[in-house]
């Protein structure tokens, strides 16, 4: 226990770590604002619904509770394991920020109307941040897959987050929240985002794995 406390105290006292952490938090805040306005833009410019090989052939299932609260539980679990090791936080925050901004760019480019009317079957708590037509690509699918890639060196976390990703992919399709291409594309784009992050934030990634207190931010 003393060693655990001492190790984390050294991380928190490092000036380089503090600067990297502050930058990561700032990037996350900015990315959330970008995503908010991109979502609103995509929704106000949404076109008509298109057919989908999967959604057109399966009935609608009311999975709104799972769609809303299961990701929250996953976020709580993810936060606990992340802040257990503070040295990992800067790289994770910056990678998540890159994920959010990249998704904001994609949803701003093409404005397909949702398969069901906007905000239908979308719980109120989700409606405050997403508007229904911010579809490509699926964050429910992509985010847990991103976490699996980040924690790839820890098999039990890797398999858990891959399971979550596949589970949420099924949920959003059953609830007709996303087109099938939103789900399939999430895996490919998220994989690219992760590898971009390891290059752009290379020193934070090194610190993530090695815990070198002399890390410098990008």
Strand content: under 5%
Please identify the oligomeric state. Answer: single chain
H-E string: HHHHHHHHH
Mean pLDDT: 85
Tally of helical segments = 9
Whole-number tally of structural domains: 1
User: What is the CA-atom radius of gyration, in angstroms?
Assistant: 18 Å
Describe the structure.
The chain has 218 residues and is mainly alpha-helical. The protein has one domain. 68% of the residues lie in helices and 0% in strands. It is globular, with a radius of gyration of 18 Å. The C terminus is likely disordered.
Characteristic terms for this protein:
mainly alpha
Quick recap of the structure?
68% of the residues lie in helices and 0% in strands.
Layout of helices and strands, plus pairs?
Elements: H1 2-13, H2 15-44, H3 64-83, H4 89-109, H5 124-127, H6 139-150, H7 155-174, H8 180-200, H9 202-210
């Amino acid at each position: 226990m003393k060693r655990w406390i001492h190790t984390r105290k050294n991380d928190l006292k490092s000036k380089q770590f503090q600067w990297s952490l502050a930058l990561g938090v700032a990037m996350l805040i900015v990315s959330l604002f970008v995503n908010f306005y991109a979502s609103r833009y995509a929704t106000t410019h949404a076109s008509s619904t298109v057919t989908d090989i999967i959604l057109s052939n399966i009935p609608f299932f009311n999975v709104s509770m799972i769609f809303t609260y299961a990701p929250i539980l996953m976020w709580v679990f993810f936060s606990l394991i992340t802040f257990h090791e503070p040295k990992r936080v800067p790289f994770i925050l910056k990678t998540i920020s890159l994920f959010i901004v990249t998704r904001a760019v994609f949803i701003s480019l093409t404005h397909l109307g949702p398969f069901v009317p906007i905000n239908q079957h979308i719980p109120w708590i989700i409606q405050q941040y997403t508007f229904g037509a911010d579809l490509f690509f699926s964050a429910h699918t992509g985010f847990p897959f991103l976490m699996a890639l980040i924690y790839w060196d820890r098999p039990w976390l890797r398999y858990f987050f891959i399971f979550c990703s596949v589970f949420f992919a099924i949920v959003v399709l059953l609830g007709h929240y996303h087109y099938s291409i939103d789900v399939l594309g999430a895996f490919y784009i998220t994989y690219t985002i992760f590898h971009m992050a390891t290059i752009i934030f290379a020193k934070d990634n090194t610190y993530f794995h090695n815990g070198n207190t002399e890390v410098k931010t990008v």
